[in-house]
Design goal:
Elements: H1 2-44, H2 50-82, H3 84-105, H4 111-118, H5 121-133, H6 139-157, H7 161-165, H8 171-189, H9 199-225, H10 232-260, H11 262-267, H12 269-284, H13 290-308
Length: 313
């Protein structure tokens, strides 16, 4: 009897370790898939209207996921309706702010630039966790957040501070900052969603609400800028973004974020940076500049200070 009791705790520890390793592996895979999104945006090089691409990719994603959510709609409909404000907030942060702005940004900046700017996501998530979830913070974490801002300024200025003083930053880098804020706030708001609702239903509800929120922006782009054309490039782009990114990557991100928490999950964004950098050099022929390395080193110092400093109660 005693022998059985002695082995149970270690077995539970091994099980928890295995679950964590599996969950973190899924998180890493999701970041690689997210990285392919930025490569796609650079590959099409403005051939597809950014809002149109985002709008149709979410329609594809919603239709792909819908058959798996039908059985969950009736049991959880009232709970979803009760928390509709959080669902709308998640949809706006993820689909309008987080994803659509990436396609706008990469019409102006490189994939490597966008990836390095995205690496401030842990710092932004930390700040929003403090504001929204009231998590305790330390002076070291605050210092780390300011250090990451310096790193972003290096990217925006391309190592030339005259660009900042002359107010001539790359608009693509600024749009990437908007995207990071959207993703970070989405990661935080996910923690407020009812855990009883199945992840697949949560994803589908957010997708559907995101389409509704994007509709007026898509209409404006179609009427006043340019419409979405039906050709081989748009079909491939929409199918990849709608299945691999909007379903697989976001689904894995939702699952692992809720299992590991927003701060741990957001820390994996640096793996996305590595994946994007490698793909950008191999596929797009982009080059890694000195100011990229300087900016990334500064951001990593700031993120390390944020994630390794424990708040005092």
């Amino acid at each position: 009897m005693n022998s059985s009791n002695d082995t149970n705790p270690s077995m539970r520890i091994e099980t928890r370790g295995g679950v964590f390793l599996w969950t973190y592996s899924l998180l890493v895979f999701s970041q690689i898939l997210f990285g392919s999104n930025q490569i796609l945006a650079r590959l099409i090089d403005g051939a597809v209207p950014p809002i149109g691409l985002s709008f149709w990719r979410w329609i594809v994603a919603t239709l792909v996921v819908l058959p798996f959510t039908l059985k969950h709609i009736r049991p959880f409909a009232l709970l979803v309706l009760k928390e509709w404000r959080i669902y709308v907030g998640c949809a706006f942060c993820l689909i309008v702010l987080g994803n659509t702005t990436i396609y706008i940004a990469l019409n102006y900046t490189t994939a490597i630039n966008g990836a390095i700017v995205s690496s401030i996501q842990p710092a932004v998530t930390f700040a929003l966790s403090w504001l929204v979830l009231r998590e305790l913070v330390t002076k070291g974490q605050i210092a780390g957040a300011f250090i990451t801002i310096i790193g972003v300024l290096v990217i925006i200025s391309q190592g030339d501070l005259a660009i900042l003083t002359g107010l001539r930053p790359n608009p693509g880098d600024l749009w990437m900052i908007v995207s990071v804020i959207g993703f970070s706030l989405y990661a935080v708001l996910l923690q407020k969603l009812p855990s009883a609702v199945p992840a697949v239903l949560t994803l589908n509800v957010i997708q559907l609400l995101g389409i509704i929120l994007l509709l007026p922006f898509y209409a404006f782009e179609t009427i006043y800028i340019r419409p979405m054309e039906l050709n081989q490039v748009t079909i491939i782009a929409v199918l990849w973004a709608g299945t691999i990114i909007a379903v697989a990557a976001v689904g894995l991100w939702n699952y692992t974020n809720r299992k590991l928490g927003p701060n741990v999950a957001s820390g994996s964004v640096h793996l996305r940076l590595v994946a994007i950098t490698v793909m950008a050099i191999v596929i797009l022929g982009e080059s890694l500049e000195i100011f990229h390395l300087v900016a990334f080193a500064i951001i990593m110092i700031g993120v390390f200070a944020i994630t390794k400093t424990k708040a005092q109660k």
